[in-house]
Specification:
By secondary structure, this protein is mainly beta. The protein has one helix at about 1-30; strands at about 35-40, 45-50, 55, 60-65, 70-80, 80, 90-95, 100-110, 125, 125-130, 135-140, 150-160, 165-170, 180-190, 195-205, 210-225, 225-240, 250-255, 265-275, 285-290, 295-300, 305-315, 315-320, 325, 340, 345, 355-359. The termini are far apart.
């Protein structure tokens, strides 16, 4: 009986020793496991507090995001993996076998509450309103059957997106601009495929009322290695049509054609194209060429399209000149420079002279 008890005690001791050795080996393994760094990308209008700055693969890592006053969290990512808040408000992810960067996007809180006034947000990281986005537009005249104003937005860098389902337009002041007045949302592609550089939409002014309005645009998507999750807000005042004063630049175009007499029905066409800018006048001038130098003056809407076309007839056929521009001295270049598309010259620059040599 005594020998049997000693045998049981010896076996039990061996089992305890094996467990101790196993735990010791596991602890050593944990100490030797490779860890990877965890960082938070710099972000405006929020703070990120990490529970750890490094962790081994498979470890659950938590962190806290606190937006600034007046902002709300719109997206949280561990690398490209979206994170959601738990019941305690904190976020977490499982550590992969590589370094992790936490990225957070926030946007202004929008509310119709009079105690929380709406604010304009021109740019939010990867998303911004275009330079020509108006602050004032005219109300539609009753006798006009249609009245549209096109609004443009831009991405800081081209983004891969599925399409317009990645963009959401919303009126924050539906009593002035109803949601139904925000129409024809589209994205501007770069070549073929799903790479986009920005987009545009139209405001149907026939549905709008006079007053101060705010329109928000939220673009969110992750595709092809690019990601965007940003919101911008535009303040637009709709004024009575008779009170609207569009901003216009004075443009001078000088066309030099030394051998003008060799061409039949030689004509210069200068067109200030303000299509889809209700209340902003377009200007089409067609001028017969009767000397070596022709000077044309035109009023031009900022960041619109001023085109110059020179043509003549040969029998019954109309033929066009290829144009070579020289930009006047002493002017500051803004926006795009002079670019060409066949026989047309586009000239989105303020108060300067464009000289064109043709022939």
């Amino acid at each position: 009986m005594i020998r049997l008890k000693r045998k049981i005690f010896f076996s039990f001791s061996i089992a305890i020793l094996a467990l101790v050795l196993a735990f010791a080996l596991m602890a050593c393994a944990d100490e030797d496991a490779e860890t990877y760094a965890i960082t938070a990308a710099p972000a405006d209008n929020c703070t990120v507090t990490l529970s750890a700055t490094e962790a081994a693969s498979g470890t659950t890592v938590s962190f806290v995001v606190v937006p600034a006053n007046g902002y709300t969290v719109t997206g949280v990512y561990a690398n490209d993996l979206p994170c959601t808040a738990g019941s305690d408000g904190s976020y977490s992810f499982t550590m992969p076998e590589n370094v992790v960067t936490i990225t957070v996007t926030v946007s202004p809180v929008s509310s119709s509450d009079e105690n929380k006034p709406l604010q304009e947000v021109i740019s939010d990281e990867d998303l911004s309103w275009a330079k020509d986005t108006p602050s004032v537009v005219p109300a539609a005249k009753e006798e006009d059957s249609s009245a549209f104003y096109m609004i443009y937005f831009e991405f800081a860098e081209s983004k891969y997106l599925s399409g317009t389902q990645n963009a959401e337009l919303k009126s924050l002041t539906p009593e002035v601009i109803p949601d139904s007045a925000l129409e024809s949302l589209s994205l501007s592609s770069v070549g073929s495929g799903n790479l986009y550089k920005g987009g545009n939409f139209m405001i149907d002014l026939k549905q709008c009322s006079v007053g101060e309005a705010f329109v928000s645009l939220h673009v969110k998507g992750s595709m092809g290695g690019t990601r965007i999750d940003n919101t911008v807000v535009k303040k637009i005042e709709i004024v009575p049509y008779e009170d609207f004063e569009p901003e216009l630049w004075n443009e001078t175009v000088v066309i030099e054609i030394p051998d003008y007499a060799d061409y039949e029905n030689l004509t210069i066409q200068v067109y200030n194209d303000n299509m889809w800018k209700y209340g902003v006048p377009s200007d089409l001038q067609q001028i017969p060429v009767v000397s070596e130098t022709t000077t044309v003056h035109s009023l031009y809407s900022p960041y619109g399209k001023l085109s110059v076309l020179i043509y003549y007839t040969e029998g019954e056929e109309r033929k066009f000149f290829e144009l070579n521009p020289i930009v006047g001295e002493g002017s500051t270049v803004t926006g795009e420079f002079v670019t060409f598309d066949g026989s047309y010259a586009y000239f989105p620059l303020p108060d300067r002279t464009l000289t064109i040599n043709a022939g």
